[in-house]
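Re: folding output
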Amino acid sequence: MKEIAIIGGGASGLAAAVAAKRSDNSVTVYERGKRVGRKILATGNGRCNMTNIYADIENYHGGDTSFMSYAINNFWVSETLDFFSELGILTKTEEDGKVYPYSDSASAVLDVLRRAADSSGVCTVCAFDVKTVEADRSGGFAVIGYDGRKRAADRVIIACGGKAAPDLGSNGSGYAILKSLGHKITELSPSLVQIKTAPDIVRKLKGIKINSSVRLGENKAEGELLFTDYGLSGPPIFTLSSRLGSEKQLLVDIMPEYSFRDINDMLHERVKLLKDVPLEDFFTGMLNKRVGQALLKFIGAVPLSRPAYTLSGQEIRDLASAIKGWSFSIQGTMSWNNAQVTKGGAVTGQFDPATMESRLVKGLYACGELLDIDGDCGGYNLQWAWSSGYIAGKSAAES
């Protein structure tokens, strides 16, 4: 019987624990917090967006996403849903492919994972903050806590998450552990996070939501956009936040169902119908009133007390252009506290994709957010956590 130590009791760590215990091994989860799975409870606004039935490699980013191919072909969406069904979770799928527990309760997902782990004999040690993992000459490991506690293990799975949402338990400690064992870590940055923009426009629109298509360079994402006092938020913004790079501008199409020509014609007709209406009310009935006023100011059609018939042909074209591509200058992203996942991580080329085992240190595994793989918004990151965690746990048990 081997002793398998799992560092971190989040999504990937619990999946690894359940998988590892399906063989005759001793499995211990070391969790720095007071309880496991806190981040699971926060996913999907408390509903837990478990996966997405459309999840595929193009939904992921990293230095080499082909690393995921084994997981996609061997333990992906259908296998994950079967896994949770066996644990007692009934799921439902929404039109956009997002999968939630039928109860709409993230606690249900955590509860069945904890029950499966406990009933199979997994030992969970909370309030154990792992400082380092040392490999010994005999092929074993020592798991050492900041308080001086030391535990022996034959296999170690590093599953302690990235740097995102530190209030929920992730502090990036896993990167230091992997680095001390010879692994390379890429540059890390917040992902699935709000984007900060020049505040002059967005502050006046704080709290307004609009369906939109957002473009960042060659990348595009669609969904509900939210204006905040610091910039932009919502699913399309979260998705594009992982692809910022050197891009300095976001283009927002607030009427994606219509072409530029359609909107231009619509505005000309609107001027005819509402010729004496002041510009401050020109968009009432077509767009959110404050959004319409902001667009008029954006193109310089002031004062807003002007009647609609004073709009020139050029101003109408500029309005149509702004509706189809409202530009916002990017000033960075919000902090790690606001991020859902980490962009970057341990270089995947140093791990075996079929087992998640280190190519540098035999018996050492890593999974989930620690690796240089991050997904779009919509259940994709939890899918990677389940898949990579399960594979790591199963492989460590069978090695």
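--- second protein (sequence, then structure) ---
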Amino acid sequence: MAVPKRKVSQARRDKRRSSHWKLDMPTMVKCSHCGEYVLSHRVCKACGYYNGKQIVKVDDAE
């Protein structure tokens, strides 16, 4: 049976595991009403629509 000859150092071990903890960028989708990019499954901050229905009334105070 194969057995390691020497202990694997912490640096070598951690280098091997370094790619396991990378964060993924959140998925952005276009709003079906206004076309602005929003996080999926969230109400659009620009127009207040979600799933084709107005959920939040947004004031145009620009």
